[in-house]
Amino acid sequence: MALVTSKEMFEKAYKGKYAIGAFNINNMEIVQGVMRGAKAKNSAIIMQCSKSALNYAGPKCLLGMVEALIDETGVDVALHLDHGPDLETVKVCVENGFTSVMFDGSHFDYEENVAKTKEVVDYAHAHGVVVEAELGKLAGVEDDVNVDAAHATYTDPDQAVDFVSKTGVDSLAIAIGTSHGAYKFKGEAKLDFDRLALITSKLEDAGFKNYPIVLHGASSVDPAVIELCNKYGGQIKGASGIPVEMLRKAAGMAVCKINMDTDIRLAMTAGIRKSFAEKPDAFDPRGYLGVARDMVQELVEYKIEKVLGSVDSMK
Ligand code: G3H
Ligand code: 13P
Ligand code: ZN
Fold first, then answer.
1. Whole-prediction pTM value?
2. Domains (range + CATH), the chain
């Protein structure tokens, strides 16, 4: 068993109206928790590492853990660079065996994003690696934000077609109202599904049939987990995420990859806080990290079943 790219995963997900979960990893307990969750649900998954995760754990260590667990479980996994800032980081990941990379040029102006993304695509494709890029800027949408100002950062559908045509990128992360972190909405949660549908239909009209769209900032920030953190000494106030039904709706549309990191962080924190509070005399890290790992597995199983719909996608 070896790492795979996300190409076939996305083809199947698009047709099956589900999405593949992309979980951020940066230590052994997360890797094991995610893999065990995927194995339990017979689901393909993407494990992704940010630049700071690479700095924290090292690409070789992350790759080694993922490969060891593929051998152990037989799960289909793509190993992906999340929010790659430059070609240099992309090269480090490709040289270390990653099968997928993201180049995030969303903060550059449009022409620069196109040029830099194209450079990454040319390099990665020559090495058999697929590329995700981002167009539009993710931001939290607040009820009192002027709609035009909010939409100014959303992905423009015509530009999306032009971007995909010019860069040859394999999947596109879009901005339709999601945002990173634990504080996504002050008022009611809103995603621009009309924009998602328009991007998809315009891509289709331009010859990009079943083109995979990626949703970043897609943690749901479960109030029960926040409550657990706060019950055991946490002080997380005003957190909110993307409702599960909205993510299900997106997965039934063109969204083939849903990114979640914050929910893993919160689940682990809740587990560790509870463990410390309940066993103040304990000091074996395997105790509280084992609890955290179980929380990750439980979370991943829930996501696969209720959010992504990718149960049995390994068949
Ligand atoms: O989108 C960003 C991910 O949540 C990774 O965050 O850079 O703190 O590892 P990080
Ligand atoms: P969350 O912060 O919503 O988990 O998003 C993670 C993400 O998009 C990683 O790229
Ligand atoms: Zn992201």
1. 0.96
2. 7-303 (3.20.20.70)
